[in-house]
Amino acid sequence: MSSSCPVSYSQIEDLAGKNITADDELKWPCALRVFWIDILPFVELVRGLLSYGTSIIVALGLIFNAISFIVLTRKHMRKSTTNMYLSVLAVYDCLSLTLNFMIGVLRGQNPNTVNKDFQQSEGLCTFHGVIVELFNLLSVWLIVAFTVERFIMVKFPLKAKNLTPQRALYTVIGVSVTVFIFSLHKIAVSGFEGDSVFGYKACKTRRAIFPEIIYFYVAFNTWLPTFIIVSFNTMIILEIKKNQKKRKEMTSNANAMSKSDEKATKLLLAVSSAYVILILPLGLIQTTELIWNNTEKVGTTDPNYVHFMTTKIKLKWSRAFFFFFYQFNFAINFFLYVSSSSATRFRTTLRRLLGFKVKKEDMTWISQSHVPKKNMIAPAQSEVSEIPKTSQEKDKDNA
Predict the structure, then answer these.
(1) Domains in the chain, please, with CATH?
(2) Which PANTHER family match (predicted)?
């Protein structure tokens, strides 16, 4: 059988240089070997993306996140609740890029050194499992917290004054502690680490093997936050449109507030929509792969074995392909900030930090930095003096 097949066993990576057993012949029939050679160019492309491509994403992501953190934590910037969330998000993204993705690349590219150290140390493997879980979840649930805050501010404008940087800090701490406690389950339970997209062999562990936990992980990391973000974004857009319509009916000077609302919404939609766009394909493939591997699994003697395995291989490497793009979530926020509602302030602060000249009209709001500003949606004091007040604002001033 093997002599008549155009693809030999030695062309299969896992079988190269190995004495072929009867079990190997059953696992790798001729049709499956031919399929592997056909899909190998795509596999090599994905491997290149997840090694060299990921390294570039990590390097650039660390640089741009560091710049974002420096800009967002300037004295005149950190009085915004939004900037509080985004500065913490930049830190978490840096940690995720380093401890999750870069370590994954090192383990995959150095199986006899770096990954061997992990395999020989139960503690190191457990630590890495906790860290991977922790920082992946921290970033997305901070975005959820940010989204909910924006909704509260648009839906209940009278409560916006309570959304202070101090409360945002409490929210960040609460989310961080909750996710950290949840991630500690990795100390006792091992899930799906044996099928890393970076291709390294999993650690031998004495922890309880609970592969079903992947279902909960995919839901908690993908579908639940995506549902929350999309739902709240939709409600925010509808609420702003409704408010704009009401203001136009009440006063012709209402455009000032609607513009600030629109600016805040653009920032929200940019950050949260980027997350949804980049994680949704990965979530769909992960979910499909899980369902396929568990519901369609057949033995090597089954007539549908080759069909099952070819589909399984396609799904595995498609997941790895979309995982590469998912990593951009942790590196592109700098560009989103520059083009967001805070573009002028962010760019001006960045130019000043880099030593470039800044126009005086772009610096007027900096002189007002001693005036407390509780959230980004509120315009700077210099802007307020130039904007006609709505009837609602006049009532507040007279109160």
Answers:
(1) 34-377 (1.20.1070.10)
(2) CNMAMIDE RECEPTOR-RELATED (PTHR46641:SF25), FMRFAMIDE RECEPTOR-RELATED (PTHR46641)
